[in-house]
From TrEMBL:
Residues 42-178 form the Neurobeachin alpha-solenoid region domain. Residues 811-832 are annotated as: Disordered. Residues 442-824 form the DUF4704 domain. It comes from Spodoptera littoralis. GO terms for cellular component: cytosol; membrane. GO terms for biological process: intracellular protein localization. InterPro entries: ARM-like (IPR011989), ARM-type_fold (IPR016024), BEACH_Domain (IPR050865), ConA-like_dom_sf (IPR013320), NBEA/BDCP_DUF4704 (IPR031570), Neurobeachin_a-sol (IPR046852). This is Neurobeachin. It comes from the Eukaryota.
Amino acid sequence: MADLKSPPFSDIKRPEEVVRMTTNDSLKFAVLIGLIEVGQVTNREVVNTVLHLLVGGEFDMELNFVIQDAQNIQHMLELLDHCPPSLQAEIWSVFIAILRKSVRNLQACTDVGLIHHVLQRLPRAETVVADLLIEMLGVLASYSVTVKELKQLFSAMKAVNGKWPRHSAKLLNVLRQMPHRNGPDVFFSFPGRKGSAVVLPPLARWPYENGFTFTTWFRLDPINSVNIEREKPYLYCFKTSKGVGYTAHFVGNCLVLTSMKVRGKGFQHCVKYEFQPRRWYAIAVVYIYNRWTKSEIKCLVNGQLASSTEMAWFVSTNDPFDKCYIGATAELDEERVFCGQMAAIYLFGEALTTHQICAMHRLGPGYKSQFRFDNECNISLPENHKRMLVDELSTCHTWFTAITAEVLYDGKLSSAIVFMYNPVATDGQLCLQSAPKGNVSYFVHTPHALMLQEVKAVVTHSIHSALNSIGGVQVLFPLFAQLDLPHDAPATDPKRDPMLCSKLLGFVCSLVESCSTVQQHMLQCRGFLVISHMLQRCSRDHLTPDTLASFLHLTKHLVTCCSPNSDLLLKQLLDHILFNPALWIHTPAAVQARLYCYLATDFLADAHIYGSVRRVSTVLQTVHTLKFYYWVVNPRAKSGITPKGLEGPRPAHKDILTIRAYILLFLKQLIMIGNGVKEDELQSILNYLTTMHEDENLHDVLQMLISLMSEHPSSMVPAFDAKGGVRTIFKLLSSESQLIRLQALKLLGFFLSRSTHKRKYDVMSPHNLYTLLATRLGASGEGLALPVYNALYELLTEHVGQQILYTSHPEPQPHFRLENPRVANSHGVHPP
């Protein structure tokens, strides 16, 4: 180790002298640390020097921002340990910006295990620095997180002495970002330097008789944003030694397809699509060969046709194609090498159809297999994506039509693979040809390709694979038990984050939405039951609108997704979370109103939901919720019912009425799904009306029953008769409230007006109920008030309306008849 206190190191006084030193970077960082400790440099000078050493030259956010040596990141960490918080914050803020700028920078951090080092430093960091470290961890972990790093992250959040460790709760922000990945876990990385490419072995001939198709997922990741118009990076180049063949290269954001017929002469076509840097695209270039008419070229981007043209692309030659490159031309010059990432690379010996390419796109960028077995992909495709009708339909939206022909997994696609290079199937710089062994070989000798210069296969680790290795989603559940714990933080730090629960729950829901394995884990461990139990033991302050939004978003996802576990998972989510009033009764009224508004409107609007909620138990559960939780007046005194939900604050009276309105709307729609009301469902409503004696608790439920009887008599009348609903009516007629008595008369009127003569006779006559009706109305002691008279008049003529009339009824029409004359005979009174 060199002595930094001796010349020439002791002669260094300024940061600009550090970068000019003719020594290794570790010594340069050591000298810079010495300058910081003696206070000879400003913060800006240190930042500039560190960035210069990282990128190997003058740093520029547009021109020079790629980290050249990953080991310098470790040297930077050592330097940061000697910096004040303000300087650390400056360095970290710029460092985060360059991480977002390039995947190669993210990979450099992964190579040195930066997540591990940052987690070690987090508890000691000042708040301003800790926030930046959390932000950077989110960026790094969403790119790649190993099992060891994930275990360390969870360990950092484990409570110590009944408290959250310092800054540990902020790590939930990191978890929240992890599922947000939009690329493959493994890919080829092209650095964009001279000589970097994947070179293919010579092909004896080119497969043209049935056309051919080149397809891959790629991402442009330019070294700088200034030379993008000057450079012409090549996606592929398949040529003979005479310079004839097929190429595809980028000019700016456009892709140009070239068919070189003779050296220097050929045809070109510009694809009408703008490819943005740093975004993943699925591309398929289809060469269609027609012997007697003009041939065609089609380019599909993300499963959709982007451009097509008629072009005589066929190159007639007997020479072998011995100048074949992925990501470059034969010259391998710097201006024409590809800079970015590619997933698995396929060449098919036939012109694939639009529908095949649409289905392949649906498999996602992570697919890297041979289309031999439909279970080789962990993405759940509908059956009609696996076996789709081959006709002239032009878009992916036609997948839900009648399906007769197999497309992806009938063996034809697999047998058509000419070559396939998979970033997983590599050995050093050798890239193994991974097409099925029985396929026709077009290669002269060995089919394996070679990765030149710094092209390499990169393997990253998603949160899904890492989480599965440490026990699955259930390892997150103990964090719910820590939500109410205090934080180990100085008094000057801000109070605990009220969004802790929504962040944790949002992370769990994102995992469930994005991974079928997590869905299976949630089913096996009854995850929603556990979460519901944990949340009921915590403060209801955690059940914020954002927490509810996470549940509702997951519900919408499970309703529409095609996973085999989605139906069972949806039922558990509904039973243990959304339909669990004990969980929500003490939350803010706005949260409860939003929940039941969703259930009453958007939830039942989707036809796919019926199979999961069309159960008698759901109706019974909802009526139970009204009875025991969302009562308007406490039912203990008059009804003798022990109410629930008294352990904490309840919504105000007006909010209870609003929530009940949503619940009853949901209940009404739920009852009428399918073939109408079921007898057990109606029985639960009648039981409610019979056992509840508070008028305020009866009015809205009775009004809903009247509405059902009026609007759906075909199913309501027989069920009402079968369950003895008239007994409930006469119970209601003894109410002290005139409004309840009037509603009971309305209900009786609708029932009788929609019943046959035989049904009316069988219900009313055996027990002389018309006389009992007069007795019940007379028992009120109020005489025959006008609204009661109007209701009896409607009952007499069977022209019943839902509205209660408090003024004189209209004059009877000529066609009106006395349908129930015993109503008048039993009362023997005239209108007041």
